[in-house]
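Listing S7. Sequence submitted for prediction.
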Amino acid sequence: MSEIRNVVILGATGLVGKEIVKALVDDGSFQVTIVKRIGGSSSHPFPESSRLREIGDIDYTSVSSLKKAFAGQHAVIEALNPSGVVHQDKIVQAAVETESVRHIITPDFSGDYLNEHIHEIRIYDSKVEAHHVTKRLIQQRKSLHWTAILTGSFFDWAIDNGIFWVDAKARQVTIFGSGNQSNALAALDVVGRATIRVLKDPDSYLDRQAYFADYLISCNELLKLLNELEDQTWTAKHVSLDDFYEQGKKLWDEDTAKGVEDRRSTTAYIMLGTYGCFHEENRYSTDYSGRVESGFGWTRDQFARELLKAVKSARKE
């Protein structure tokens, strides 16, 4: 495949999109176009750069409108939030009909939603549907390929926002179940690092999921590590997973009945996602052992430094 230099990003002003834009611009190898859709409410003041431009008033429900944004682009990066993937059929069709586009990085940047049991926890349903749409439509052009970037949980962002298993201010780690379940963790900027790696070597990632995590660790190991890193004692808060799944499903069904659309901050979403992470038999593939891309990831010392940095940031030290 020829070099990828011109890249268009959908969802550039979101949590993931902002990180990807920054990484690509800082790398200096790409010309980056960010898309502002009609009706979009979010904004972000990106620094001026000769390598960055914005195109506005793009209608995600229109193939012809999307083709205007894709013209001359080599790759389309979908940094969309879950609500945006309802437009996947139009986005992929527009890429198919734009000859310059050779690669799509699909709207993922999350856990392993391609796991065979993932439908049980519901939170990835929209991503699964978008994946099926992509695979079906992309077959129209043999020169067009896709990559799904699957990451670990964004531990630094989550700690800073008080929604992680590590409570920096209370110096407490929540232990779910046995606490021995290994999870893939990554710093938020992994989305940029992984995207650059795929774009610079697309042939190695054609039409497959690619796993990018910085470190694999259990809650028990997290607690031990934090007690090594700080003089003050860290304690454990134990949470049983008994009935956790059933409670999460019940709340999910109640939200459905109420017509809740944005579920990401709901108790049901958090409970089902947590259950997925800590199933004792790794039923939902949150342990990426043996699957992280070659040469990617941190040593224990590197992870320890970044973990401590995140903890201090959350405490504003």
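Caption to Listing S7: primary sequence and predicted structure tokens for the chain studied. The mean pLDDT is 94. The domain at 154-183+215-314 is CATH 3.90.25 (UDP-galactose 4-epimerase; domain 1).
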